TrEMBL record:
Signal peptide: none annotated. This is DUF1295-domain-containing protein. The keyword Transmembrane helix applies. Pfam families: DUF1295. InterPro entries: UstE-like. Coiled coil: none annotated. It comes from Glutinoglossum americanum. It comes from the Eukaryota.
């Protein structure tokens, strides 16, 4: 049972107590397979995270077998556009079948209403006995905006941090691009010519050579690469 927000992030309270259900769920699933009502009862009595784990374990040998048969080990990648939706639908279905939470919703409204009323009352009372808090100056409060701390170095430190996060995400794909290029260069002999003709991200405008050389033979491509190696000026002519 969780009572606080910190409890919700505690593995020992939210996950560990339900791990034994994984074994019992698998065993009971075999016996309840032919009875829809038993299946529903088993589904509702099992923690949704545990039944999601069981589904993942069910998929594991299937992906492994298909990968070995096809000699292609990217089977999970093929299902990646579908599996997140399946898991989300699973959690939504489990919550829906558990029934309405009318009492909880009413209690939440009462708590929010009470909290809002107390906040307004506290603000009204504070206006009568307002004092400048320790560490602040009346000038800072009268100004209406912050000019100290992080805001003495940047007018929008929060936006700056968000942009740094986006930049870090871009750097991740820079590394992935380099890795992909290195693999393709080793695997495909003509990839070097393709790199010469086509830019990595943006069109290469400094050359008149078209990017599509599907009509050329492999010998033509190799000859073109040799000609450029001898006279790099030809690439720009």
């Amino acid at each position: 049972m969780v009572h606080t927000l910190a409890d919700c992030a505690d593995f020992s309270k939210t996950v560990a107590p339900f791990i034994p259900q994984l074994r019992s769920f698998s065993l009971q699933l075999v016996g309840a397979w032919a009875d829809p009502q038993l299946m529903k009862d088993l589904y509702l009595l099992t923690n949704p995270l545990i039944s999601a784990f069981a589904f993942s374990l069910f998929l594991f040998p299937i992906f492994l077998l298909v990968s070995e048969v096809n000699r292609n080990y990217s089977q999970v990648d093929r299902m990646w556009s579908i599996l997140p939706a399946v898991y989300n639908a699973h959690y939504a279905l489990w919550a829906y079948l558990q029934g309405p939470f009318d009492i909880q919703l009413l209690e939440e409204r009462r708590v929010l209403k009470g909290f809002g009323g107390l906040s307004l009352q506290a603000k009204k009372g504070y206006l009568k006995t307002a004092k400048v808090p320790t560490g602040f100056e009346q000038e800072d409060l009268d100004r209406g905006f912050v000019v100290t701390g992080l805001w003495s170095w940047s007018r929008h430190p929060n936006f700056a941090a968000e942009q740094v996060g986006a930049l870090s995400y871009i750097i991740l794909f820079q590394a992935s691009t380099w890795f992909t290029e290195s693999i393709s260069s080793e695997k495909y002999p003509e990839y070097a010519e393709y790199q010469r003709r086509v830019g990595m991200f943006l069109p290469k405008l400094g050359t008149s050579a078209p990017g599509n050389f599907t009509g050329q033979t492999k010998e033509d491509v190799v000859k073109s690469m040799a000609d450029v190696a001898k006279d790099p000026i030809k690439e720009k002519s």
